[in-house]
Amino acid sequence: MYRANQNGQPQRGNADGLRQNCLNGRQAASVSQPPMTISEQFRESWLTAIIGSIMFATGMCLLFWNEGRAVKVAHSLDEALRNVIVLPNSMMLSPEYEGRLIHLSGPLLVSEPLTEPDYGVVMSSVKLKRRVQMYQWVEIEEEQSFGGITEDEKHYYYTTEWKDKLVDSDHFYIRTGHHNPKEMPIKSQVQIADEVKIGAFTLGMELKKKFSDFVEITSDERPERKNIKMHSGLYYHSADLWNPQVGDIRIQFSYAGKSGDVYSVVGLLEKDTIKPYYTSHGEEILLQRRHKISVDQMFHLEHVHNYWRTWTVR
Question: What is the pTM of this model?
Answer without folding.
Answer: 0.75
